[in-house]
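Table S2 (continued). Query chain:
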Amino acid sequence: MLEGKWMKRGFLYAFCAAALLLVAPGCKDDAVEDSGTPDTPQAEDVFSQLNRDIADMQSLAEGHVKVLTCFTEADGSAVMELDNNHVLNIYAEQEKVNSVPLVGIDGNGYWTYELDGSSGTLEGSDGQPAPALSSTGKSAVTPQLRLSDKRYWEVSFDGGEWKQLSTRQVWDVDKAGKSAFSPFASCSVDGDKATIYLRCGAYEINVPVEGEATTDAWNKFVAGADGNVLLDFSYAGYRHGEEAPPEAAWERVNVRQWMDDYKVGARQALLDIMAKYGLDKSSGNGNANVVIYFPAGDYVLHNEDDNTRDDSKTSGDTDSRGNNTSHAITMFGGNFVIKGDGPDKTRLIMETPMLPNNNSMYSSPTLITIKHNSFLTSDVYDVTGSAAKGTFSVEVANANAFSEGEWVCLYLHDNSPELVAQELQPYEWESTMTNISEEGVQVEDIHQIEKIEGNTVTFKEPIMHEVDPQWDWQLRKYRHYENVGVEDLCFVGHSVSDFKHHRSWEDDGAYKPINFMRLVNSWMRRVRFTSVSEAASIISCANCSAYDIDIDGNGGHAAIRSQGSSRVFIGAVRDRSNRPLADQWSSSNIVEGAGQYHACGVSKPSMGAVIWRVSWGSDACFEAHATQPRATLIDCCTGGFMQTRQGGDAEQVPNHLADLTIWNMNSINSPAPKGNGNVGTEFDWWRSGWKYWKILPPVIVGFHGEPVTFVQDQVKLDESNGTPVEPQSLYEAQLERRLGYVPAWLNALK
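Corresponding output:
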């Protein structure tokens, strides 16, 4: 049972596990040398949090910071968010460890402390009591604590000289819990005022609490309460969202200079550079260490001259252009960047369509595919223990076959009828759903191993599907390349001006500029796509990011998708392409800003994807293209919410399985009127009697804009419909909760 008061604006993050280092330099290494018992990263971070709590204690008492939110639980514990983006954790049960210093403020406004069973006043460099508050009539100073390389507690004021505080060496703090370091005893909330009581000293801090209530879904997530329905999506993106890709300092090869020096066109220059750096062979070069630089200008990478004739095609395979075939530029490798001078200056052009390989509308090759040629190794290691959603570890037979830092795939392909029925709850399997019944429940969750202990493998990221060893769960080695970037350029196609969904290969697939396949920690940024059929697919990848992207010109089939990938971040995409309305199609009625038919989204066994602050057209909706995507966050997006735009063949539905989460969606167009597969303004998620359009109950919080109501027995949660909620972005809030701050790269995109 949760009690207390939530006030607005904040992203309450739990005790910071990534605090900025205020601990003594070398403390960790020296501890290893002296004692054989190293400080764990957790202990080092706790010391840092101690110093931050002391500084916040002083700032609150002086009135320099305010409390934005205060949340208390029935057991007396509390969490407070401050307007300096810090969080105070007040623990209900606090252990007493003599070797852990407790710092507080005495009744006269000076710093006091307890250590080793005794108490005293902290003294400054002048030997006098150190003032904590300006009410003493003196300039207040801020203490910092650290363990020296000899394992003595030391104190410094405002970054000055360090002075020994303890009289004995300390070896047991690594075993102390976080509550042992907290300077806060308890708090109480009365209306809009909070009182914070200290564990040491007589001073009581009285502060106002500001703001409005946050959403119940967020409160339960933060508290880990019963009824929480949110997964932790904060690990999505390049290096788990913790940092931006660096500006590559590798050798730079100028494509224009190559063209001039060797008297070749842009496509041949790129192929030559690939050959020089080992990117043209399927064996691949994992360390190409090169920036392929396209300075400002136009570069034609495909036209009819690149096509070849294939007389082996049968008449059924030919198209109106005869037996000609187009060819992709396939790059095998990692540690390289394709870079231009900016999306308004560097243009990579497809002058003519990429011809289909057969009579399928989807068989046109992609202009550039960057890939690893393999996927999973043939070696199979059975998972032998259960794991819940949100946990990080699995038990694996022969775990010693893996190594820390290795990338692996938590893999399930099992068509046991009992498992299929379980996966589809609360619905039942329907006879048209042949993919899930024949191919089975398919989970391909790609992880990096952080730690191996015995047969327990711990990942860096949370597991997003519960694991039950009675089914055919496996851990398999995952083949990939890393550190590939595409940035600061524009891809230009010539897609049809009157796009019509599934009319022909020219509508759906003739201009696909780029795909990533089996890459990790890779990115696309500052890119524009003009008049393309599909902007980009990120296929069987992990922790890749695509952000700060524009899609314009003639509209086409799809935007950017996570296809069978894990924890892809797609953010700050602006889809403004033009085409006729799908349900009122007329070749002469082109609507500006209608958007790609499928907006950014997911397909196949995508896991943990985040679609963040994406805007798409009025005649579109997020993509959920069937074949078992799960755990997708549509976060703080703006666009049409048109039913049936998700996509997917009938045999491959459901369009999306468990844990679709839609947070603060701003709808600019409600579902179309009845007819053409639509049912009016009530939006249903599982349409009975129709072989298409099936999504397991989603979580919907803060849906607003153009009114849309949802069939209530088809949703897991529909909270605050019609009103946006706090926190505004779930991804930002969860990332801030995990790191203690919102990374600069993410703030810069807002």
